[in-house]
Structure formats: C-alpha cells, structure tokens
Design brief:
single chain, mainly beta, 19-stranded mixed beta sheet, eight-stranded antiparallel beta barrel
C-alpha cells in the first residue's frame, strides 16, 4: 500500500510538471500584471513580452505602433490583454518565442454544403461567407493543415476539396484581414492522422521571393493569394516532389512547407529547405534554406542561406549567405556573404566577409575579404581587391605621370588601396633610330610611414610595340618607389627598379639592342634574358 501511494504521488507530480510545461509553452495564456498610462503601443507590447519571456512580431505598416494606450491589468492572460487593446480586430498566432499579430477586423464562416465519399476518400463542398454581409468571399484558402491539402474559393465563395483520411478532418479557412475559422468533419471516427511539425512564423509572410523578377515570372497569382491568406503558417515534412510551382505532392500548400528532401523535376516553390533540394531548372524558397541546393538554371531564397548553393545561371539570396555560392553567370547575396562567391560574370553583395571571384565584375558595399575579378567595385574597401580596375570610395583613384629608363613619357591609373593596388599604364619612346610604344599591368603594396611619406613596391609587366602586334618585346619590372605627399592632391615619387628583358627570338636583333643599350648594370641572364637596374620618377594626382 505504501508503494502504491508513492507511485500515485509520482504520477501526480509528473502530470503537474507536464501541465506546467504545456502552459509555459502557451504564451497567450500567461498571466501578466501591468499598469501603464498613455504609453506607446510598441512600448506596451515590449513590456508584455518582457514580462512573459517572449516577443511580438508585427508589421508597423498594418498595426499603429505609435498610438497611445492606457492599460491596467492584475493577473490577466495575454490573450485577454490583447483583446482589450485591439478590440478583437487583430488575430494572434503563436510561434516558438513569439506571438505574431495580424490585422483581422472581419469575421467569416465556413458553411459545408455536401460531404460524400467512401473508402476514406471524401469530397467536401461548401461556401465561405462574410458574417456581416452574408456574401461569399472569393480567393479564401480552405485547407486541412495536417494533411496539407488546400484549395481556393471561387468568385462566389464556393469551394470543393477532395481529402483522403481515415480519421477526423478539420477544415480551416484563412483570408487576409479575416479571423480564421475551422470546422470538424467525421468527429465520431478514431483519429489516426499523421502529425506534422506545424508552427507560425512572421518571416513566412514575407513576399521577397514573389517580388523578385524570377518569382514574378514563375509564381502564380493563386500561390500569391495563398501566402496572403495563410500568413505565417508553416509545417515541415521529410520529402516533396514537384513538376512546377503548384503541381507538387503538396499542391498549393507547397509554399507553406519546409522540406528535408525536395526534388523539383522542372521547378518548385516551397517555404524553405532543411536538407537537400534539387531542381531540373529552378528552385524557389520563400524563407530560409540550408545545406545543399542545386538547380540547372537558378535558385532564389527569400531569407538566409547556409551551406552550398549551385546553379547553371544564377543564385539569388535575399538576406545573408554563410557558405558557398557558385553560378555560371551571376550570384547575389543581398545582405552579406560569409564564405565564397564564384561566378562566370558577376557577384553582388552588400557586405563580403570572405572570397569573391568573377569573370568580369564584383560589386559590394563593404569588402573585408578578397575580391578577384576584372573589375571590383565597392563603397568601402577594407580587404583586398585584385583586378584590372578596383574602385572604392575610400581607395585609390590616382593618375600618374612619370618617366623611366625605357619609355620617356608614361601615363598610368592606380586603383585599389594601400594593402593591394593595381596599375594600368601606357607610354611612348621617340628615339633617333627606333620609336616604340608601351602598355603594362602591375600590382603593388604601400608601406605607409605617416600621412606624408610611404614606400611603394610593385611588380609589373610592360609590353613594347615597335611594329606589328605579333612583334612585341616584354619587360618585367620590380619597382621600389619612395613617395612624398605634398598636399591633398599631389604626390612626388622616385626610385630604382630591377628589369628583366626577354629576347623574343632567342638572340639580340637591332630592336633589342636599341631598347637595352646604355642600361645601368646590364647583364646576361641566360641566352634569352637580359637584366639591368632602372629608375622611375614622376607625379601622382
């Protein structure tokens, strides 16, 4: 008897803890005590959330967060407080750690017309009407959230939906600016439905993917209406297949589903990815995606991406990327990229904390990593830019006029920053026996002593052309230049260089002798190379 009593106490204690835990997870049922006068709504919601240990999620465009509220409550539930504040004109959805507020000033009803079926296949029809006017509501979403089956009402509010189930069916109706309504069917049958991990997410109501130009092309108006109606409703499932957006194993509910494995024959539109997604042509995700995503043409992610993203043409992530983006033509990480971007033509990101490589252009607002491309453009360059042109607001944009022992007159453009800069140069030498012109490319680094003095070290290649394009002479130069900055505009520089000259035909001809004659410290470096000590002197603007 003693042990029976002890076991009974343990069961009671366990049930009490379980009940307490369940209540702790229901933020709307928490008891709050508050007393505020003429406080802004945004501040009041922050106080309620702080007292209950959660946050509110809402759009300031839809809810007037600056309106003044007076409230006095003693051990009142959060639900009752919100009812008093919003007078029943706002709908509340719970998400882990959040309560999502959505304007819903209107009421609707679901009125079933017929229910028929056999062998667990049911066909349900009916109307969705406005409670105030009694008129049918068009484009309302009617769905069974556990079975992920949905449809939209027609212009008169009529719907028909086919459901396969061996247990209770609960149809829910959602419409923008209306409170949700639900109706149960087959309630006398034992429930044996497969449960999904469903929740509400304020991020899921985002239309970033739909507003993207690719989303505007491939996402139908019915799918857009579904997002407006269902708002933040999200569920996760192990697997989905899709032929095109809307033609998938989850039908119109696919845009509310996060998948672990997703196979899109041509393309698909889902809520997100937590695993692997493969698309024959394209993948569209409404919010976050992670791990592996690959498409024959393009990927679009409306939230953050983490992992490896591969596409034949383009990858577009409308928030942050943490990992690798690789595309044949174009990559976009709208907020930031921490990792690597590789593109055949162009990479774009607001902030780069990693490595970018593109065949033509890299563009960013803040570059703290390494950018490699023909042209690199950034507002603030705190890292390294390697390319023909490296343009930034805080970097170098210097025009150089100078002379050296090879070409009498030279003009160059210097871009980048002190860590690493690029130089494009052109010059000419008009001699008594030979005229030749030059063009060159180089990279360098500045050792800055103070605001007036710094030392430049450069490696450059200079091509000399005296006749035909196929008759060029090549010089590799290693320059050390001492710079004196005389003001905010001008700098004077001068210094020595070591030059390595390559004989194109393996032995000296008349042009070679004219170019290398009278050079200081001229030396033979093998049969086909000559070396000497040179100089440069000039001004930079």
């Amino acid at each position: 008897m003693k042990y029976t009593h002890f076991a009974f106490c343990l069961v009671v204690l366990f049930l009490s803890l379980l009940t307490a835990d369940i209540k702790a997870q229901n933020n709307l049922d928490r008891n709050i005590t508050l007393n505020v006068k003429q406080a802004k709504l945004s501040e009041l919601l922050s106080l309620i959330g702080k007292s209950g240990g959660f946050y509110f999620s809402y759009s300031s465009d839809q809810i007037r967060a600056d309106s003044l509220v007076t409230l006095s409550a003693d051990h009142s539930t959060v639900r009752n407080l919100l009812d008093g504040i919003f007078k029943g004109n706002v709908d509340y959805k719970e998400s882990p750690g959040y309560i999502i507020l959505r304007p819903a000033p209107n009421r609707l009803s679901l009125r079933p017309d017929t229910t028929s079926g056999k062998e667990n296949n049911y066909y349900i029809t009916g109307y969705v009407v406005d409670d105030r006017t009694g008129l049918g509501i068009p484009n309302a979403s009617v769905y069974e959230k556990r079975l992920l089956v949905s449809t939209l009402t027609n212009n008169k509010g009529f719907f028909s939906i086919r459901i396969k189930s061996d247990g209770q069916i609960t149809l829910t109706v959602s419409k923008e600016f209306y409170k949700d309504a639900s109706v149960n069917f087959l309630s006398d049958v034992t429930i044996s439905l497969k449960q999904h991990n469903s929740y509400y997410s304020g991020e899921s109501a985002s239309d970033r993917t739909e507003r993207n130009w690719l989303g505007r092309i491939f996402i139908s108006s019915r799918a857009r209406m579904q997002r407006l109606n269902l708002g933040g409703f999200i569920t996760s499932v192990p697997f989905q297949t899709s032929f095109l957006p809307g033609l998938s194993s989850h039908g119109m509910m696919s845009s509310q589903v996060v998948n672990h494995y997703s196979l899109n024959v041509l393309g698909g539109y889902t809520a997100g990815l937590d695993g692997i997604e493969l698309g024959g042509l394209f993948n569209l995700n409404k919010q976050d995606a992670q791990y592996v995503q690959a498409a024959g043409l393009f990927n679009v992610v409306g939230g953050n991406f983490k992992g490896v993203e591969l596409a034949g043409i383009s990858n577009t992530v409308l928030k942050n990327v943490n990992g690798l983006q690789a595309a044949g033509i174009y990559n976009l990480a709208k907020d930031s990229i921490t990792g690597m971007q590789l593109a055949g033509i162009m990479n774009i990101s607001n902030e780069v904390n990693g490595f970018q490589a593109a065949g033509i252009l890299n563009k960013s607002h803040l570059m703290t990593g390494v950018s490699f491309g023909l042209v690199n453009i950034t507002d603030t360059l705190d890292g390294y830019a390697i390319g023909l042109l490296n343009l930034s607001r805080n970097g170098y944009h210097q025009l150089l006029v100078y002379s050296n022992e090879v070409t009498t007159a030279n003009l160059a453009f210097k871009t980048g920053n002190g860590k690493l800069y690029a130089v494009i140069s052109t010059g000419a030498h008009l001699g008594n026996h030979l005229n030749y012109y030059s063009f060159g490319l180089g990279i360098g680094h500045d050792f800055i002593f103070n605001q007036h003095y710094y030392l430049s070290t450069e490696i450059a290649s200079q091509s000399l052309l005296s006749g035909q394009w196929n008759d060029q002479h090549q010089i590799f130069k290693f320059n050390t230049l001492f710079n004196v900055k005389t003001g905010t505009t001008f700098s004077f520089f001068a210094g020595p260089s070591f030059n390595l000259y390559h004989l194109q035909k393996g032995e000296e001809n008349a042009e070679d002798r004219e170019i290398i004659c009278n050079k200081i410290g001229l030396m033979n470096l093998g049969k086909s190379n000559r070396g000497w000590i040179g100089w440069s002197v000039g001004l930079s603007f």
